[in-house]
C-alpha cells in the first residue's frame, strides 16, 4: 500500500468521515550523477557557511525567512504547525459543480482518496451519489505547507482528488483563434472520418516512454562499448492542400482497417469453433 501524504476528515454539510490521501501518479525519469570530467569520480556538493568560512553538516541547518536585506527570522517546524489552518486536518467540501464544467487545465497533482476505519459507509454514499449525479466536489485542504483548492471526483472504484491551479496561475493566451477560420463542409467531414478511422478504446497500458527506453538502451550500449546509433530525424512535409492530405490519410488507413477487421473476424470464428467443440464434448459426456 502506498504511504499516506495526508490524513484527516472530509466534511460536507453535517456529514464527516475519516480518509487518507496517497499519491496516485509520479513521473519516472532516468537520473544522472555529476562526475569530475578529468577522473570520472562523483562530485560531492558541500554546504558552506559564508560567515564562518567552513563546511557545515545538514544537522546545523534551519529554515529562515529574509524580511530585510541580509536579515532573517528563524522558522522551525513547530512554528509552522501552530499556525496551520483547520484544513490541515479537515477537508471541507465547499460546493459541488458539474464535472463537465471543470476544465482539465486546472488539475495539477492526483491522489487516491481512501476511507479510514469507520468511514466506509459515508465514503461509499458520497462516491455513489457523485457518480450518479455527475457532480464533482470543490474543497480546501492544507498540505505541504500550502492550502490547496482541490477537486474531488468519482473514479471507477473510488474517489480521486486533484490539487487545482488557482485562476491567477493559468496563463491566458490569445493564440488559439478558431472562430476566425473559415471551414468547408467537405473538409470537416473528411476530418471527422479520419478521426473515426483512428478511434480506439482508451488503454493507457499500451503507451510507453520511447525517450526513456532509448536512453536505457544507449546507456547499456555505452557500458558494453557498442556504437551509439542516432535516431533518424522524421521528415514532415508542409501541408499545401488540406483536402488532398485528408484524402490520402484516409486511403492509408483503409488497408489497416481491413486487416484489423479480418483479424477480428478470424478471432471470432476461432472462438465460435471452440465453443461448438466444447458444447459437443459436453453433450457427449452427459449422454
Short description:
This protein is α+β, with helices and mostly antiparallel strands and 287 residues long.
Helix-strand layout with pairing:
Blueprint: E1 4-12, E2 15-23, E3 48-49, E4 54-55, E5 63-68, E6 71-75, H1 77-82, E7 90-98, E8 107-115, H2 120-133, E9 135-143, E10 146-154, E11 159-164, H3 185-197, H4 210-223, H5 242-286
Parallel strand pairs: 1-7
Antiparallel strand pairs: 1-2, 2-8, 3-4, 5-6, 7-9, 8-11, 9-10, 10-11
Helix pairs in contact: 3-5
Essential attributes:
single chain; alpha+beta; 32% helix; two-stranded antiparallel sheet; Ku70, Chain: A, Domain 2
Describe this structure in words.
By secondary structure, this protein is α+β, with helices and mostly antiparallel strands. It folds into two domains: 4-26 and 83-169, Ku70, Chain: A, Domain 2; 178-282, no CATH class. It has helices spanning 77-82, 120-133, 185-197, 210-223, 242-286, and strands spanning 4-12, 15-23, 48-49, 54-55, 63-68, 71-75, 90-98, 107-115, 135-143, 146-154, 159-164. A seven-stranded mixed beta barrel has the order 1-2-8-11-10-9-7. The model has no long low-confidence stretch (mean pLDDT 84).
Using the alpha-carbon principal axes, give the shape. Answer: extended
> Roughly how many Å is the radius of gyration?
29 Å
In CATH, the architecture of the largest domain is Beta Barrel
What is the spatial order of strands in the main beta sheet?
Answer: 1-2-8-11-10-9-7
Strand content: 25-35%
Task: Give the ordered list of helices and strands.
Answer: EEEEEEHEEHEEEHHH
| Whole-number count of domains | 2
Reported for the largest beta sheet, the result is: 7 strands, mixed, barrel
User: What is the end-to-end distance?
Assistant: 52 Å
Q: What is the helix content?
A: 25-40%
- Mean pLDDT figure: 84
The CATH topology of the largest domain is Ku70, Chain: A, Domain 2
Contiguous helical run count: 5
The CATH C-level class name of the largest domain: Mainly Beta
- Spans of 5+ residues with little confidence (pLDDT < 50)? none
Class by alpha and beta content: alpha+beta
How many individual β-strands? 11
